[in-house]
Amino acid sequence: MGTQTATLRLIGLRRVSTNGQIDKYGLPSQTTDMRAFAKSHGHRIIRIETDAGLSGTLSEDDRPALFAALKAIRDGQADGILIPSLNRLARLLTVQEAILAQVWKLGGRMFAADTGEILPDDPDDPMRTAMRQMYGVFAQLDRAMLVKRLKNGRAEKAKVGGYAGYGSPAFGQRAEGGELAVNDDETETITLIREMRESGMSLRKIADALNDEGITPKRGPIWYPQTVSRVMSRP
After folding, report:
1. How far apart are CA 135 and CA 227, in angstroms?
2. pLDDT tens digits, one per residue of 46-83
3. Is 9-118 assigned to CATH 3.40.50.1390?
4. Nearest C-alpha neighbor of 82 from the set 43, 137, 120
5. Is the dihedral of CA 132, 133, 135, 140 positive or negative?
């Protein structure tokens, strides 16, 4: 008589870096794969969190869905996180390893729909760590090659004039008729941020103040200290 596998409460975690998702592995496909995995292994997805339009190079502080998933584990509401694949979790090896370490530190488990459970390091099985990190290295390489292709494409576009960027312009700017123009509302927010910083407020307090006022960043629903810092670093 076989051993019954315990049913785990999992948070499904999806991510796309752009609205179109260049690699075509969009949110519906990710959801389908995660639900199929959970069903076949007898686990329950209690909810699905989504980081839409956010890069896999960002840490948890800049990814609300990831932050919420970790909080669910911390609060005892979930036993682990289910992702479609490891490269949906991160596109930088250092970010990948930091997130996994955080999940395991909280006592949670991590699953990928395409490969199964991602197990913590085991000193008796160094190959486990090496293979996981090798996957992360190739995810990072894939992103770097994509960035290079996009950069080359922008350079070609710039030869004929016009806005050669991709995605949405930086905070404080907007695309208009193929050119960059000033976004007045966002420029006012930048001025406000700098004034608060000059008054001695921390990045965290500035983020909280912006959120309390209902002012939203360019990407994502709320401000984080890192988001404030990036805006301040703009010339």
Report:
1. 28
2. 999 998 777 667 777 778 899 999 999 999 999 999 99
3. yes
4. 43
5. positive
Total Cβ atoms within 10 A of residue 31: 17
pLDDT 10s digits, 97-136: 999 999 999 999 999 999 999 999 989 999 999 989 887 7
**Which phi and psi (to 5°) does residue 71 adopt?**
-65, -35
Instruction: Report the 10 Å Cβ neighbour count for 234.
Output: 10
User: Radius of gyration (Cα) for the chain, nearest Å?
Assistant: 20
The confidence score (pLDDT) of residue 68 equals 94
Cα–Cα dist 139/137, whole Å: 5
Secondary structure of the chain: what % helix, strand, coil (to 5)? 50, 15, 35
Give the C-alpha separation, 82 to 113, whole Å.
Answer: 7
For residue 2, the model assigns a pLDDT of 43
Helix (H, G, I), strand (E, B) or coil at 212: helix
pLDDT for 6: 84
- DSSP-assigned beta bridge partners for residue 11: 47, 81
Nearest to 30 by CA among 139, 121, 113: 113
Burial class (CB within 10 angstroms; exposed 0-12, middle 13-18, buried 19+) of 66 = buried
CATH code 3.40.50.1390 region(s) in the chain: 9-118
User: Which tens digits make up the pLDDT trace of 128-176?
Assistant: 999 898 877 877 787 678 667 766 665 565 555 454 555 567 787 777 6
> How far is Cα 225 from Cα 150, in angstroms, rounded to an integer?
29
pTM score of the predicted model = 0.61
Task: Enumerate the H helices of the chain as residue ranges.
Answer: 27-41, 64-74, 86-89, 93-105, 126-159, 184-198, 203-212, 225-232
